[in-house]
Design goal:
By secondary structure, the chain is α/β, with parallel strands linked by helices. It has helices at 6-13, 55-60, 71-80, 92-104, 120-131, 147-154, 175-183, 198-201, 204-212, 236-242, 294-307, 312-320, 348-360, 380-391, 406-413, 427-437, 454-464; strands at 4-5, 16-19, 24-25, 27-29, 39-42, 65-68, 85-88, 110-115, 137-139, 163-167, 187-190, 223-227, 249-253, 259-266, 272-278, 281-287, 330-334, 337-341, 365-371, 398-402, 420-424, 442-447. Helices cover 35% and strands 23% of the residues. Helix 5 (120-131) packs across helix 12 and helix 11 (294-307) packs across helix 12 (312-320).
């Protein structure tokens, strides 16, 4: 972030400025625990937490600039320290977005926006890696695909930035459109149309309509990059049905597309190898991220690179520099136990991809800890049965399910007579069972939706079994 005056930020959101009007901000935070001197704390009022309860803690860490909506709670800071700046607005989340919009508009940057039911974070990371071979690119280091996260991504830019790569998640209608109304992406990417968020949107057609709203700002010479190998968006005619007649160019990735991926080889812990094929040319690539499904994500990233004049050879060089992403097939060996943390989220496609990887992993005993999958709506039972059916083919040793819908995993997984299955309603009970079962030389894969507690189990397992070997 370029150092920015509090006057600029207050004017951008129409906020009232109190206290020291000469302060500048060098970064923005919504987590009070991460603050440093010179940064602005955004006191977000959420369903469970109110950022105004952490104002003093933020101050103690050196913060002197605060975006607040509850002025009375913040005035105590100003009363004891005149160097404090308060920017007061009715809704801090809306004000923060308005600040981000005004800040980003200062720079002449191209903007790439990535969405999709599965794989959008990895695709965003790979896209940034490819584009970085030719341009000055910024993109979030964490999974920032929500209203606040997209604003935080905007603040990463400065006068040297040429391209910003955004990630746009959603769980309700018109959410992506809301983001695009101020980000205005020049290139859009859709990884796939899955069944995540059926609980809120009802049908896959509604999900497709919402995902395709990412094309709303595109001009006639700008591109949508999308995968055409799925059972949705198989060709331009089908894709444009959901794009509501908007005028833009398309770049299809898949067997029938302009760019395809072939000869995928799973190197397990070393990652994957594959060939990219475009315009009669083939480029061999090595990607140090585990899981063969990431070849598709990489091909989407390479397609974005081609749109921006990055060659396939340069894309391959970018892939080789990528590091494994947090909580995405993150393998650590501690106390002789291999802990594979893939807990960033879960849908039938992503769970099966993780199981497919684990099936090929070499270990004396393989244990799967599987939380349920949320937001599947009418597809909840079918989705869990689908995963259970695949589990029965994998040859694992122990399956531990967490949550009520885990019974649907079990219904199909029990077809594997050699698979031991234990089910728990609560993650705390499952965790204690895990500790009684796991032995050195075991490998444990943990997967499930964020709300199921599997991420916390994975974190505590890493602590329990000691330093990484």
């Amino acid at each position: 972030m370029r150092p920015t005056s509090v006057k600029f930020l207050a004017e951008a959101c129409g906020g009232k400025l109190l206290g020291n009007t000469a302060n500048t901000v060098c970064d923005v935070r919504i987590d009070s625990r991460e603050l440093h001197s010179g940064e602005m704390f955004v006191a977000v009022v959420g369903d469970k937490n109110d950022g105004h309860n952490y104002l003093q803690g933020a101050y103690d860490l050196g913060c002197r600039v605060f975006l607040v909506s509850e002025e009375d709670k913040a005035l105590t800071l100003l009363e004891k320290d005149p160097q404090v700046t308060l920017i007061c607005a009715p809704d801090t989340a809306v004000a923060f977005k308005d600040m981000a919009k005004a800040y980003l508009e200062q720079f002449n940057v191209k903007k790439v926006a990535v969405t999709g039911s599965v794989g959008k974070t990895t695709t965003r990371i790979l896209t940034a890696a490819v584009l970085s071979e030719k341009y000055k690119v910024v993109s979030a280091k964490k999974n920032l695909n929500t209203y606040l996260g997209i604003a935080m991504t905007a603040f990463l830019a400065d006068e040297t930035t040429e391209i910003v790569v955004f990630e746009m998640g959603m769980d309700r209608r018109h959410e992506i459109e809301t983001y695009c109304d101020w980000v205005f992406p020049n290139t859009a990417v859709i990884t796939n149309i899955g069944i995540s968020h059926l609980e809120y949107l009802g049908t896959r057609d509604e999900i497709a309509l919402e995902k395709l709203s990412i094309t709303k700002p595109l001009k006639s010479d700008e591109y949508l990059v999308y995968q055409c190998d799925g059972d949705y968006l198989r060709d331009d005619a089908e894709m444009r049905k959901f794009a509501m007649g908007r005028d833009f160019k398309s770049f299809r990735v898949g067997d029938s597309g302009e760019l395809s991926v072939t000869n995928v080889v799973d190197k397990v812990e070393q990652g994957i190898e594959f060939d990219l094929n475009y315009d009669g040319r083939t480029q061999h690539c090595m990607l140090p991220i585990m899981g063969v499904h990431n070849a598709i994500n990489a091909s989407l990233a390479a397609a974005v690179g081609l749109v921006y004049g990055v060659s396939l050879e340069e894309a391959a060089a970018g892939f080789a520099k990528v590091e494994s992403t947090y909580r995405r097939l993150d393998i650590q060996v501690r106390g002789g136990v291999t802990i594979i943390d893939d807990t960033y989220n879960a849908s039938p496609l992503s769970v099966i991809a993780a199981l497919d990887f684990f099936k090929k992993y070499n270990a004396k005993r393989k244990i799967v800890v599987l939380g349920i999958m949320r937001e599947l709506g009418s597809e909840t039972v079918k989705g869990h049965l689908q995963v259970g059916e695949y589990l029965a083919t994998c040859g694992f040793d122990l399956l531990i399910t967490i949550g009520e819908e885990g019974k649907y995993y079990v219904e199909k997984a029990k077809d594997d007579k050699n698979l031991q299955i234990v089910s728990f309603e609560q993650p705390s009970m499952a965790e204690q069972f895990i500790y009684g079962q796991v032995k050195p030389s075991d490998a444990v894969l943990l997967k499930g939706s964020n709300i199921t507690g599997v991420a916390e189990i994975a974190a505590r397992m890493r602590q329990r079994y000691g330093k990484e070997e």
